[in-house]
Design a protein that fits this description.
Protein name: DNA polymerase III subunit chi
Organism: Vibrio hepatarius
CATH topology: Rossmann fold
GO biological process, one term: positive regulation of DNA-templated DNA replication initiation
CATH class: Alpha Beta
Structural class: alpha/beta
InterPro entries: DNA_pol3_chi, PolIII_chi_sf
CATH superfamily: DNA polymerase III subunit chi
Strand order of the largest sheet: 3-4-2-5-6-1-7
Strand content: 15-25%
Shape: globular
GO molecular function: DNA binding; DNA-directed DNA polymerase activity
Number of strands: 7
Number of helices: 3
Oligomer: single chain
Length: 149
């Protein structure tokens, strides 16, 4: 059974700010990739995908993990591939980290979905809608509250 995990972003945490949130996404992607997962990050748009790719270069050298944007990098890609709405991962991925507000149709291609519940009310409502869609698609759902950085 596929799984979907929603991370709840609290206003008091560094992840509530754009830079802190994207740094947390990099942390999660690295965490899953170190466990052997082939990770796809589904950005909301091309600019966000490019910003994330740049953040992966800004980690400490011992924390660096190879990554690439869709269409770049080696033929069979790296453990972490970054794309956005309208592009597809270049090869089979087990886990997607979804940053797109309205996009869920891709999810059935992944055994594991990571999504977020932001602080802002409109974004929170969109997250609730995605949650319902995952539930209707048969995903086993869980939530994790981001309590610290």
């Amino acid at each position: 059974m596929p799984n979907a995990t929603f991370y709840i972003v609290n206003a008091e945490t560094p992840q509530a700010q754009s830079e802190g949130f994207l740094a947390y996404v990099v942390f999660l992607a690295q965490h899953f990739a170190k466990q052997g997962a082939k990770v796809y990050i589904n950005g909301d748009n091309q600019a966000q995908a490019e910003q994330l790719a740049e953040l992966f270069w800004q980690v400490e050298p011992e924390q660096f993990i190879a990554h690439n944007l869709v269409g770049e990098g080696p033929r069979y890609a790296t453990n972490i591939e970054i794309g956005h709405q309208g592009v597809k991962p270049s090869w089979n991925r087990q886990l997607v980290i979804n940053l797109a507000e309205n996009e869920t149709t891709f999810a059935n291609k992944f055994a594991e979905v990571v999504d977020f519940v932001p602080c802002e009310q409109k974004a929170k409502q969109l997250a609730r809608e995605r949650y319902k869609i995952y539930r209707q698609a048969g995903y086993q759902l869980q939530t994790i509250e981001i309590a610290h950085n």
